[in-house]
Write a structure and sequence with these properties.
alpha+beta; binds inositol-(1,3,4,5)-tetrakisphosphate; about 150 residues; 7-stranded antiparallel β-sheet
Length: about 150
């Protein structure tokens, strides 16, 4: 009958990476995400990666929860006050740079964000952000000027 074929989610064999979610996958993940304490900061988008980072500005670093969501968006939250503090603005010029195990940068036209992952997975962050950039804007976007 037709019943079984209707329930089959579209297989995305052309997906460039794990962030390229089908509509069905997105709905499923949003449903699962409702119990996540960071869900309401994600503005209805799927959280693709999250973790604590120290964001340095001037002399001091502030501990923030960083969310990479579909959209794409990069949202940072004060985990003590549980309030959103800001967003790293996406554009084709955004570029993530891995410095060492703990440190990575997110370059934007108006600012470079200095971030550190105390767990030492800075490379995962920079790769995730770069993957999202390529998925959103294409491989050719934002070629390095350095
Ligand atoms: C603040 O320093 C925090 O680092 C802010 O980060 C930062 O804002 C401020 O920069 C900076 O002055 P103090 O906490 O020592 O005052 P957060 O917003 O995460 O709390 P952003 O959001 O821009 O990094 P300014 O220049 O944006 O105000």
């Amino acid at each position: 009958g037709v019943g079984s074929s209707v329930a089959m989610p579209a297989k995305r064999s052309t997906a460039k990476n794990s962030f390229d979610l089908s509509d069905a996958e997105k709905l499923q993940r949003l449903e699962q995400q409702k119990t996540d304490k960071w869900h309401h900061f994600a503005d209805g988008e799927v959280i693709l990666k999250k973790g604590f980072v120290n964001k340095r500005k001037g002399l001091f670093a502030r501990k923030r929860m960083l969310l990479l969501t579909t959209g794409p968006r990069l949202i940072y939250i004060d985990p003590v006050a549980m309030i959103k503090k800001g967003e790293i603005p996406w554009s084709p010029e955004l570029r993530a740079e891995y410095k060492n195990f703990k440190i990575f940068f997110v370059h934007t036209p108006n600012r470079t964000y200095y971030l550190d992952d105390p767990e030492g997975y800075a490379i995962h962050w920079s790769e995730a952000i770069e993957n999202m950039r390529k998925l959103t804007y294409g491989e050719g976007a934002s070629t390095s000027t350095s």
